[in-house]
Design goal:
With 394 residues, the protein is an alpha+beta fold. It has 9 helices and 17 strands. The two termini are 26 Å apart. The N terminus is likely disordered.
Length: 394
């Protein structure tokens, strides 16, 4: 089984593939011995007040080769690198870092080889090099032209998982401009400026069931109830994650090359009523935005974030701003009497601002876009718009 998480850094796309390699008896002794080796390097670095890799190598390598003769030289080097990073992260901490017995083991191309075409993993252990088969699903074939840089071997629930970090150059961005504004909310998870709605009815029903079940378990307070509560919380998180994946995939598949969102960082820090704070706490807008970002990047598309100020109060037709324009889910402009669904109106304002922000980012590049034409295409809001409803989970 392979899962994946993707994000970007500079001009590269990085993707972490999570490969389930099952319960392998020959891996466990290697993991335990590796962590003892890593801890011995941490101890020396802590005593010498250094996390420099070169200094750690010269002060520990010979002794550790004698004390841990079953570990290959390449694993000594990755253990040194991991110990150095742990010491660096904890340099301001007064307590010495402890490498637990079953904590993650670092691997790189010196002690790990992955053959995607044959679906075989070859890795170094204290018993020598071993080969482990894995299953590659059809939708993972896109990674054939990616390069892996390093990996983390993780033990969880008597199974081992290999987290492979993959790297690929970011596709060249398209030069045209067609912006889709996306308004994120609680009643409607996402509303796009092209009148595509993703409502939260199905999501709310499922989360409501989980809430009732968790409340019952919390009231019991037994050891088995707490164990069940942890399991249910994991199920709920995976369900929400799956919903966000479905929505983000549909959004990036639309015929637009720029997606505009409100910058909602810090929204939970605002002082609001208790009921609204509770709703905001269950709102996974950040995860949805991140999913859209990495999926769009893979297609050579872009994501911009705009200032959310007045996007719900501004008329997308005449630009008049008045907080009385919006009443619940209905938007009716006090200036021009233009009427539209409030979330759709907000999404079109987001798209308009997104065009401006995107053009400013490329102001030095000629012939990027005919702003007037695109502005007119995206934001010509008619009162008889046909709204498209996309029910999550249907």
């Amino acid at each position: 089984m392979i899962k994946y998480i993707t994000y970007n850094r500079s001009n590269n796309m990085l993707s972490t593939l999570i490969i389930d390699i099952g319960n392998r008896e020959e891996i466990l002794p290697t993991l335990i011995t590796y962590n003892k080796l890593c801890q011995s390097i941490i101890d020396r670095g802590w005593e010498e007040h250094t996390f420099n890799k070169n200094k750690l190598h010269h002060s520990t390598y010979k002794n550790n080769r004698a004390n841990f003769p079953t570990i290959q030289s390449s694993l000594h080097q990755t253990a040194r690198d991991q110990a150095s990073d742990i010491l660096k992260r904890n340099k301001k901490n007064k307590n010495k870092p402890i490498k637990k017995q079953f904590s993650a083991m670092r691997l790189d191309r010196r002690n790990l080889a992955v053959n995607f075409s044959k679906q075989i993993i070859s890795m170094s252990t204290i018993f020598g090099r071993i080969k482990i088969p894995f299953t590659l699903h059809k939708h993972q074939e896109q990674y054939f032209d990616w390069k892996y840089t390093n990996a983390q071997l993780i033990k969880k629930h008597n199974c081992f998982f290999l987290n492979l970090q993959m790297k690929k150059d970011t596709p060249q961005k398209s030069r045209g401009l067609s912006v889709l504004g996306v308004d994120l909310g609680i009643k409607n998870i996402a509303v796009c400026s092209n009148a595509l709605f993703f409502n939260s009815k199905h999501l709310k029903n499922i989360k409501g069931n989980y809430k009732k079940l968790k409340s019952d378990l919390q009231s019991k307070g037994t050891k088995s109830a707490k164990k069940k509560l942890k399991k249910i919380s994991g199920k709920e998180n995976r369900f929400v994650r799956a919903v966000n994946h479905v929505i983000s995939k549909k959004i990036v598949a639309l015929n637009y090359n720029v997606f505009a969102f409100e910058n909602l960082n810090g929204i939970r820090k605002l002082h609001r009523c208790r009921a609204l704070n509770k709703l905001l706490g269950n709102w996974s807008f950040s995860q949805l935005q991140k999913f859209v970002e990495y999926k769009a990047e893979r297609l050579g598309k872009s994501v911009v974030k705009v200032n959310p100020k007045y996007t719900s109060q501004m008329c997308s037709k005449c630009g008049h701003i008045n907080k009385l324009n919006r009443v619940g889910s209905v938007f009716k402009c006090k200036n021009c009497s233009f009427e539209l669904h409030a979330d759709l109106n907000a999404s079109r304002n987001i798209a308009r601002i997104g065009i401006s922000n995107f053009v400013q980012a490329f102001v030095n590049k000629p012939n990027v876009v005919d702003v007037e034409t695109e502005n007119r295409k995206v934001f010509e809001a008619e009162s008889n718009d046909k709204l498209t409803n996309s029910l999550v989970g249907s």
